[in-house]
Amino acid sequence: MTEERTWTAALVVIGDEIxxxxxxxxxxxxxxxxxxxxxxxxxxxRIVPDDLDRIGETVNALRATHDYxxxxxxxxxxHDDITVDAIAAAFGVPVIVHPQARAILEDYYRDxxxxxxxARLRMARTPQGAELLPNPYSGAPGIxxxxxxxxxxxxxxxxxxxxxxxxxxxxxxxxxSVTVGARAAESDVADMLRETEAAHPGVAxxxxxxxxxxxxxxxxxxxxxxxxxAKSCGGALSERLREAGYEPVEGGI
Length: 253
Known about the structure:
Elements: E1 7-14, H1 16-19, H2 27-37, E2 40-48, H3 52-63, E3 68-72, H4 83-91, E4 95-97, H5 99-109, H6 118-121, E5 125-127, E6 131-133, E7 142-145, E8 148-151, H7 155-165, E9 176-182, H8 186-198, E10 204-212, E11 215-224, H9 227-243, E12 249-250
Helix pairs in contact: 2-7, 3-4, 8-9
């Protein structure tokens, strides 16, 4: 029997405002969740500044080592939106005004103040040879360049671009998660977790401590591509927790 292929993706979050702390990124969780639903693992995330060389170097490194690369940020209408320029340079192609993107923006801004002014026209720029990604939310399209998917940084716009891609990327099986919570310190059950994971090949158990209602505890998350295996492992862990005197809570605390 051949092992099923695991499809992977990386994400590059672009923007000085993220690195400075002025803006909190909200795209990583959304992208990770959406990718898992497509059967693709988000394997790596990098945050880079608005710097042409840094963006290009990162894009070239990650697009070569993953099936897919997604970027967020830097495709808006202002001078500091340089993602398109950086990715075009990384691919060694010029930047063009994409005729279809221009037509989309002309239609979108036709009845709006100032119409399609030069700043807004910047959002029609793509690397030569790129395809457009639909943007049902605000008109300005995303961009696909080979295995690189260039999304907006605004979370609801990025989410709408992802939704337009749902079901259109090759992938494997989604990872299923089962959570068991208990008023147990990680250090008290570390051996139990390791032994339970070892007894169920194909699962990974993560432990996440919490403090709630004046007491400590942990949520144990069992992950597997095999949903039944994840459930079986969760049941086995629950039983061992009970035997050790900890009352487990299905779904976590």
